[in-house]
């Protein structure tokens, strides 16, 4: 385990049980971090209740972490809204006195439709959450980290979709490719302040979101879900899809002192499926 004692971390999009964000929170807390659980909190246009981390679920995750000995709070935040992002940073600093780590994990990955049927509203929703949200959170986290004078870590959760194209996910693919570009640009700008920015690119992880993708693409390929998952495992050199803990482990490393000289990179966590 990396030693992240005394660090304070925000993980956006972490308010759903069994989600990738929850897995990252658990690993960071095990490494000694104080953590902020954050998600949108309530359904909004285009974001139904079954696709968001509700405030009650966020609070439950925070309580579970507190029960394990972690100092954890929950702060709702719609990452598309600049004022809410500013509030997220302010609440974190008000409670903990500092901010050392930001993990941009909030994302929309359930918009799956042929490109020529994709509405502008669907396109904009995905870009706004996945890319604009990461920009806004990084902007205000970087301001806070710079003011503290101790540097910091920003980790953007991209995807294998940041390296390769897939059918019926044009907005998602575009947003994740853009997130790698944002990572590189911000790394160049913020390096002198001691802030490193890296992206992590996992392949498929069967979270609640992953289950929706399994259902959609198994039908698209004329397979059962079990057949689809078996086919996926067969093309991955290590023989299985990813787990939240796989991604969480590299996030913890990138947040550690051992990774102080690593920035602007897009790390594959794909079991060998993605190699560029």
Could you give a quick summary of the protein structure above?
This protein has 276 residues and is an alpha/beta fold.
What does this protein structure show overall?
The chain has 276 residues and is of the alpha/beta class. It is 45% helix and 12% strand. A 7-stranded parallel sheet has the order 3-2-1-4-5-6-7, sandwiched between helices. Helix 2 (55-67) links the parallel strand 2 (34-37) and strand 3 (72-74). Helix 4 runs parallel beside helix 5 (170-190). The two termini are 27 Å apart.
Any key phrases for this structure?
276 residues, alpha/beta, globular, 8 helices
**Structural Rg:** 18 Å
Q: How many beta-strand runs?
A: 7
Q: Helicity range of the residues?
A: 40-55%
- The largest sheet has its strands arranged as 3-2-1-4-5-6-7
Category from helices, strands and their pairing: alpha/beta
Q: How does the overall form come out from the CA principal axes?
A: globular
Sheet of most strands? 7 strands, parallel
**In angstroms, what separates the terminal alpha carbons?**
27 Å
* Succession of helices and strands: EHEHEHEHEHEHHHE
Residue share in β-strands: 5-15%
Low-confidence stretches: none
Q: Mean pLDDT, as a whole number?
A: 95
Q: Number of DSSP helices?
A: 8
